[in-house]
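In full, the data.
>
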Amino acid sequence: MKSPASFKKAAAWALPYWTRGQAGRETPQDLFRVLYIGWLVAFALKVLGSAWDVSWHFKWLRDDLAPPHLLNSVGTVIVVALTVIHGYTGYGVDKVALRLIQWGTGVFLVAVPLDLINHRINGLDITSWSPSHMMLYAGTFFMIAGVIRGWFMGAPPGRERVVVLGAFFAFFLENVHFPEQHQEYGILSLGAWDDKVVYAEQILLQFAADQMGRPIDRAMMAGFTLPVPDYLYPVYAVVVGLSVLVVARLLIGRFGAATLVAAAYVGFRTLAWPLLTFTGFPPSAVPFFLVVAGLLVDVAFLVRRPAVRAVLGAAVVTAGAYGALAAQSAVMGPVYGWIKGQDGLLGAPPLVTASAVWAGLGLLVCWLAVEWIASRRRPREAAAPLPRATVPAAVTP
């Protein structure tokens, strides 16, 4: 615990920077680093809360003051504070990054009460794909995009710049993949039901059954655990999730970047799995296939011509992602079953292989768009940091 003297010292360092300024203002590197460490902490809290939140809602009836929501709220408070600091002082961001952060935070804050109203009126959300939830994801999407741009444009070249940029992309991947966790939890919960094991408490099952207007039976469980078409999971993962890895590889500019971003997210999910499962929460499938897809994205970037890279990459990456997803179902199913002492648990959501055509076309469109934008507004391979500012006189001894 910090002493009062430490707080006074921190305040003495920070307060001189609290002056009005425009975005793009010269930013001292120590201040720049502190601001983006704050973003890392905020996103880490939000990821921890969201990972817990999904498992919570597959076990207990929704509660506005549930611990995962409170943990998320702490991260949100930090986000709002950082947004205000950037907006008032102009430090650490250019105009584009600031607008993305402000709009993203604004959409997120508007979505929170809308989601609460939605639950008050309609009760339990049967799916993570509801409109109010999608607003939360969209707000976070723009927020993290702004932070990535701010760090990319302002951080000095070096290992720290690359590592932190990769971390922000891992948070970005977690946000876009978040709704897919409904199917990842749902398929195992449905498999458990078939094996006469129920993870959810009775009041949650009854609530869902009443909302669907049917008894607690397998059809109700299927509607609760897998409420969206089976093709949505692989198509969304390929088009949206893998597009994030393409952008990450392009901006980080190093072989292995896409693989490491995917591995960071999957590694977190892998570590969280036993922490949640062995404390009584429902298990989920873990998207290991994303690591294979990330590796194939890195391999695709060995092709130098952007258009050819996009065409070949979309085809190879889509095929690899679908193949890895099919293999995960075959290999990981028995592993999950052995751990939980059950049979019949699948290691991945249902896979509609025919949807690979549409997933590949969607990824191709996104990949070509990314390459086209990069060719017109080529980001600097080693972006120069924002000009260093003179430390305010009040800070000078």
